[in-house]
Amino acid sequence: MMLELASNNGIANTNETLTESPLAIRGLTVSYGQKPAVFSVDMTVQAGAMTAIIGPNGAGKSTMLKAALGIVKPLSGQVTAFGKSLDDQRARIAYVPQRASVDWDFPTRVIDVVLMGLYRELGLLGRLRARHKAKAMDCLNRVGMRDFADRQIGQLSGGQQQRVFLARSLAQDADLYLLDEPFAGVDAATEKAIIAVLKSLKDAGKTVVVVHHDLATVTDYFDHVFLINTRKVAEGSVGEAFTAETLQAAYGGRLATAQIDQLSRVVG
Amino acid sequence: MVAALQPRRSTSCRVWSAKQTDTRVMLIDALLLQLGYNATLVAIGAALLGVSAGVTGTFLFLRKRALVSDAISHATLPGVCIAFMIMVALGGDGRNLIGLLLGSALSAWIGLLCLNWLTRNTRLAEDAAIGSVLSVFFGFGVVLLTVIQTMGVGRQAGLEGFLLGSTAGMLWADAMIIAVGGGATLLLILLLRRPMTLVSFDPEHAAARGLPVARIDLAMMGLVMAVTVVGLKIVGLILIVALLIIPPVTARFWTERSDRVVLLSGLAGGISGYVGAAMSASAPNLPTGPIIVLVSFTLFALSMLLAPNRGALAAILGHLKFQRRVHLRQGLLALAQGQPIYERLTLRLLSRAGLARADGVATEFGRARAAKALRDEKRWEVVRTDQAHEAAAALYDGLRDIETVLTKDQIADIDHRIGGPQEIPA
């Protein structure tokens, strides 16, 4: 009797954490043509944590994120955000796509891109006021791009473009930040600036999820990991889930033994 | 119209140039709306059409789907013909413009849905899908046009006029249709400009925010369709695409901001419509639509040549200027390090600037400048490695004088860090 009650309580508890998670994915499958890129994946994002989604090239990291947000249409699966339907919670979610997904010759200035983050505040016809511009400038300041506000976006380096994207998401005042490969092809200064902003978000109680490809920095930057190779491989705190075994399972033969050894030293 | 011209004609003193003067006077009269009722209606209608086509076309251009408008416009033809046949079958004369435009809108919409279906559900890329829809609909339309011609003589109402536009018999009601259609289009764009810009710049981000990307795209195409249908009478379905595409690319030369591209594009379209219509009215047998397109192209060509920053001339001049600066800088650095200079252009530029003699020996002034150039190199090295100077470092091109990007105090600070001789002027 007691035992039964205890186990029931246990189930109730997991359900609760599951539903209140900033982003909960259940049975998500995405397929391009006949080959699934993501197969029946569950993910429960830990609130207030910084989570890295890692896996080899083509493992479905970005696809999973896009499908969770409805950018790509999944074949099956359910997604909830903060315990409610995703569409009710969109205002609390900021997504930073890959830099390459945009035409950087688009006629727009840095400040205009950040102002696009204020779309919900501005509405269809709301006038752009001084406080909106001040807010956008503040967001640019946080990523160290204040001096670039009036430049055309095509004049920026890759790292600077990435920081502008981050500033746009900051303008959204979200509670959950999802970033797709923000460190791909950026300079060291940008990487430092971005990670500092992300850590400040975490300190402010926000949740951050990053599609990440650099295994060497995982333990420095993140406290949770989600390993994927089409299917989920492991999920949990860095100490539990980021181990030589899980990496071997996710990357298979794609990591040289030397790399695994090196990483095991990092992992400890 | 003739009466208005009479007094001026009599002032023309040389008989042999009377005809030439005539045309010129006519054009001025046309631009001032003095050429009579029909010409005035056409000029105002064309200007309104130009504005709404330019504004609508900008979003199409920003979304990189400019050619979709070509498919949409060609897909109007079967609708025009079927609407005519239905109206005749019902006992009308088939020329009712509203009826014809409704028919054209319906078949353009079907064409658009076909296009969307093909790109979404088959492996056809959008360009191939555009080609298929365009040719099939247009071909079907031409067949119907031939059928109509054999239906009964005298009743065909000049449907071919919809191919290239025909303004000869334009009525007040026709102009009103254009004005109302164009005005409604502009109003909708005012309402949708923010979501359309968001979707055009970054569709993934827009989708993640919950914007209905597919529906916004469809609305954008719906607006293009409205402009096309409204423009059938004046420019016709073959050339309307020019009014949708040329103004935005013209405007793009002048600005780096999307909201200004929209406004400038509307302006360019409006001017093209107005001037083109006036020109075609100033001489007999000049087709309105094609002249409007040519005026539009003239604006484009001028912009392409003359626009600052993005124009062709600016690019050539900029390149030459840049080349001279590179040579001068390299020359100065060579002088500073006592290396011989072999390149003729470099020598010529140095001596012309009074920095060196023709044989490559530095003048007093040249030596001072050379020392400064070398010093600047070191200063730039500091700037480029210091994160605090990132915005300035982004301007580094190996040529710039450091004082154009940094203040005196900042330079003094850098000099302090470099050490060495401090007497070199900033």
Task: Describe it.
- The complex is a heterodimer of chains A (268) and B (426).
- The radius of gyration of chain A is 20 Å and the shape is globular.
- Chain A has 268 residues and is an alpha/beta fold.
- Chain A contains eleven helices and ten strands.
- Chain A has a six-stranded mixed sheet, with helices on both faces. A four-stranded antiparallel sheet of chain A has the order 2-1-4-5.
- Chain A has a single domain (23-267), classed as Rossmann fold, CATH 3.40.50.
- In chain A, helix 3 packs parallel to helix 6, helix 5 (130-142) packs across helix 6 and helix 6 packs parallel to helix 7 (188-203).
- Chain B folds into two domains: 23-289, ABC transporter involved in vitamin B12 uptake, BtuC; 313-418, no CATH class.
- Helix content of chain B is 73%, strand content 0%.
- Chain A binds chain B through residues 66, 69-71, 87, 90, 93, 95-97, 101-103, 106-109, 112-113, 116, 119-120, 122, 124-125, 144, 147-148, 152, 155-157, 160, 168, 172, 178, 189, and chain B through 62, 64, 190-192, 194-195, 197-198, 200-202, 204-205, 207-210, 252, 255-258, 260-261, 387, 390-391, 394.
